[in-house]
Amino acid sequence: MDSLTVLVPVYNEEAVIGEFYRRTVDVCETLEGTRFELLFVDDGSSDRSIELVHDLIQDDPRVSLLRLSRNFGKEAALTAGLDHVDSDAVIIIDADLQDPPELIPDMLKLWRQGYDTVYGQRTERHGESFTKKVTASAFYRLMARVGRFSIPRDTGDFRLLSRRAVNALKSLPESNRFMKGLFSWIGYPQVALKYSRDPRHAGDTKFNYWKLWNFALDGITSFTTLPLKLASYIGVLLAFGSFVYGAYVVVKTLLWGDPVPGYPSLMTVILFIGGIQLMFLGVLGEYLGRMFDETKRRPLYLIQEHVRGRETERKTSVIAAAGESVK
Ligand code: UDP
Ligand code: MG
Predict the structure, then answer these.
(1) Top mutation candidate among 14, 65, 74 for ligand 1, by most atoms within 8 Å of CB
(2) Which of 41, 137, 206, 300 to probe ligand 1 with, by most ligand atoms within 8 A of CB?
(3) Which of 121, 148, 239, 270 gets the most CB atoms within 10 Å of its CB?
């Protein structure tokens, strides 16, 4: 019998947890030959989410809770979850029902055919603003252009990962966890499963544009050094241009003398070069800051509470008992 863990990051999702649980369990109960558990990773919620998950744990032995000590962000929550699963396959899914749990059986089918990653690829995104769609698509296009491996377009975190893929992810030591990038970085056979993304069932999105911008910066800086190279090339071009222009000024002065005009052009050039320099200092800073974060080697998350569902407890004790009898 295969085991499946459905991994759900939760941050202030009291409005959707009940419905999410109902729909997901309904689907998972139809699975044949698969034992499933639900692992909620609470990312420092301040509403009633934790209470609701505790209630579920009371009634359903297949539900577990991993609670982080504060809000660490979705990437850290996913990392924490993956660090704590031991099943044959893991499905990562948002709590807000934007990713339909009804796709789970299809994902498992593809996994059984030998794929290590089955990622949901959105053909449509309902209920999201025009700006969000445009910026998201621009970001995916940019990443596809600059990355050294391709990150599939229109793909979020909704996916199935095999045991082998999870182990690979766990072995990556970096603290800047841009999961979409890491998922692709590991390679292994991957396949897309197309679906149309629903609007949020209830509650509000946790990502505003500022967060998304920083998320995009994380993605770019952790997977390409192109901006740094760009700085060198633009520098070379400018230096060359300045040299030519300098030669022109010298020759002009020698031939016709210098009646001291040119304040506007001087200002323009100074401001332009100053601006470019500051901009690329900023780019350097982005990389340096991230190196600083990496060198601190802080843990990615801290756990406040880990309630293992009774089903998981039973499984572990069976394994432990088996181990003892072998000794
Ligand atoms: N989430 C999280 N930590 C955060 C922000 C979000 O664990 O700091 C979870 C959230 O509860 C949800 C998923 O990540 O299950 C996706 O969040 P959301 O729906 O707000 O993002 P969107 O779909 O708008 O990109
Ligand atoms: Mg959402």
Answers:
(1) 74
(2) 206
(3) 121
How far, in Å, is the centroid of ligand 1 from the Cα of 217?
Answer: 18
Predicted TM-score (pTM) of this structure: 0.76
Ligand 2 centroid to Cα of residue 148, in Å, is: 28
- Please list all protein residues whose beta carbon sits less than 5 angstroms from ligand 2, which is an ion: 96, 98
User: In terms of Cα–Cα distance, which of 52, 47, 23 is closest to 198?
Assistant: 23
Q: Write the pLDDT tens digit of every residue in 294-304.
A: 888 888 899 98
Evaluate if residue 264 carries a pLDDT over 90. Answer: no
Percent of the chain with pLDDT over 70: 94
Q: Where are the beta strands (DSSP E) in the chain?
A: 2-10, 34-42, 63-68, 89-92, 117-125, 155-162, 190-197, 303-307
Whole-Å CA distances, 201 to 10, 19, 20, 212: 14, 9, 9, 21
What number does CATH give the domain 2-224+299-326? 3.90.550.10
Domain extents for the chain?
A: 2-224+299-326, 226-296
The closest-lying atom of ligand 1 relative to the alpha carbon of residue 95 is 15
